[in-house]
Predict the structure.
Amino acid sequence: QVSLVESGGGEVQAGGSLTLSCAASGRTFSEYTMDWFRQAPGKEREFVARIKWNGDDETYLDSVRNRFTISRDVAKNTVYLQMTSLKPEGSAVYYCAAGGRNAMGIYSWVSWGQGTQVTVSS
C-alpha cells in the first residue's frame, strides 16, 4: 500500500504560479505511475498530468500542456506539479494518485491523496 499526501495549494492571481507536491510513503514507488487530477465544484474529476517513476512518458491534459510540468524526485519519493500562467478555470481541488496496470493489462488507481485546494482569482 502506498500513502499520498499533497501540499502546496493556495490562492494566486491569474497569470501566477504554484507548485504542488505529492509525498508518497509505503510500497516501492517504482511500481506505480503517478497522476495529478483536479475537481472543481459541480464538475467531474479530470485528469491533469501523468508521469512514470522512471520519468518516462509525461502526459498532459491539452489545456495545461506547455503551462504545467509534472516531475518526480525518486530520492524524496515526491511528485511535483509546477503550474504557471494559471487561469481562474484552474481553480479546483488537486489530487495525486498512484496507479498501474494489473496482470490483465487493466489500469487502475491504488491510492489517492486527500487533495489540496488551488484558487485562481481574476
In short: The chain has a mean pLDDT of 93.
